[in-house]
Automatic annotation (TrEMBL):
Pfam families: ABC_tran, TOBE_2. It comes from Phytohabitans kaempferiae. The lineage of its organism: Bacteria, Bacillati, Actinomycetota, Actinomycetes, Micromonosporales. This is ABC transporter ATP-binding protein. PROSITE patterns: ABC_TRANSPORTER_1, ABC_TRANSPORTER_2. Keywords: ATP-binding, Cell membrane, Membrane, Nucleotide-binding, Translocase, Transport.
Length: 348
């Protein structure tokens, strides 16, 4: 286990700044997830930590010691990729034992440790099979077992679940979290899937355009997004964002008014409001908007309302009495966010 610190870490590919001087402290024994859209620099960051990509600036520290000049094999890391990269001609047991054998451990002891790691990931039944005789989920678990068997300082995982179908993905995700708890290691995982990130992370790091937008516990990012990007990227459905104006203690957009008790400023602004913080009241006539679509999802209902300024998505109870075509008054709870209008935005 190790604390991993990134200091002004930077990576340029010619004119492209893939990672733009980021600073991050990954706590010892944490499950840290780097989340962001394609091309935001998360894989490059992971590869720099692994030593697969050279940093063009800054420092990487494991437990206070600089590692950025060390080759990957000197960093005491294990990496798990989207593709499982198993040896096709070796059995499951041999695949898992391979890193130990490479270090010169005798066959019997390596086999015993590999069998133990396989047991943690429910692979004991398939130890004698070759990778092609396994499902995708099992193959990925073999790759995970091969990573944990070495007990490295840091585990680096690059989209390890993205080749799995939805159900296997959920199962494997739960098992991955459990494995991290059991092993107690420092895990750093890269994904563009916000659900996966929310459910796995102790520390969630949202990246965009080579920069860290916000880092913290997942619920903190959900409840207090630092800017519009984090608001829209974390949480499903995406946070509603409405452009308008603050004046006289209220936010207004095309006639829709949201009181802002204690508003600290006036002028153009963006209102951010989560679907569950919209309060819809059906009206006999008129109203702020009209219900366009009602999506019944069982435990909850998503309601898309057409407003003068655009659409809003509200979350209601599974059995909410609401129908498409209805007029509605649209209110909010007090949990609304004000972002700056002219940039990515920050919280007022
Ligand atoms: P994805 O989820 O698609 O893998 P990512 O967030 O992991 O995206 P990176 O792979 O880190 O993003 O890429 C960040 C930026 O750096 C992108 O603009 C990418 O095109 C660029 N880039 C990455 N590797 C190289 C390279 N070897 N040469 C040139 N540009 C690169």
């Amino acid at each position: 286990m190790a604390t991993v610190v990134l200091e002004d870490l930077r990576c340029e590919f010619g004119p492209v700044v893939a990672v733009d001087s980021i600073n991050l402290e990954v706590p010892d024994g944490s499950f840290t997830v780097l989340l962001g859209p394609s091309g935001c620099g998360k894989t490059t960051t992971l590869n720099m930590i692994a030593g697969l990509e050279e940093a063009t600036g800054g420092r990487i520290l494991f437990d206070g010691g600089q590692v950025q000049h060390l080759s990957p094999d000197k960093r005491d890391i294990a990496m798990v990729f989207q593709s499982y990269a198993l040896y096709p001609n070796r059995t499951v047991l041999e695949n898992i034992a391979f890193p130990l054998r490479m270090r010169g451990m005798d066959k019997k002891r390596a086999g015993a440790l590999a069998a133990e790691a396989a047991g943690r990931l429910q692979l004991s039944e398939v130890l004698g099979r070759k990778p092609r005789q396994l499902s995708g989920g099992q193959q990925q678990r073999v790759a995970l077992a091969r990573a944990i068997v070495r007990q490295p300082k840091v585990f680096l995982l690059d989209e390890p679940l993205s080749n799995l179908d939805a159900k296997l993905r959920n199962d494997t995700r739960v098992r991955l979290k459990q494995t991290q708890r059991d092993v107690g290691g420092t895990f750093i995982l890269v994904t563009h899937d916000q659900m996966e990130a929310m459910s796995l992370a102790d520390l969630l790091v949202v990246m965009n355009a080579g920069r860290i937008q916000q880092a913290g516990p997942p619920l903190e990012l959900y409840r207090r997004p630092a800017n519009r990007f984090v608001g829209s990227f974390v949480g499903v459905p995406s946070m509603n964002q409405v452009e308008g104006e603050i004046a006289e203690g209220a936010f207004t957009a095309s006639g829709w008014r949201v009181p802002l008790p204690g508003a600290v400023r006036t002028g153009p602004a963006v209102l951010g409001v989560r679907a569950e913080d919209l309060v819809l009241t059906p009206t006999e006539q008129g109203g702020d908007g009209r219900v366009r679509i009602v999506e019944r999802l069982g435990t909850e209902t998503h309601v898309i309302v057409a407003m003068a300024h655009g659409e809003l998505t509200a979350r209601m109870a599974g059995d909410a009495e609401i129908e498409a075509g209805q007029g509605v008054q649209v209110g909010t709870t007090t949990n609304v966010h004000i972002f700056e209008a002219d940039e990515d935005g920050s919280r007022v």
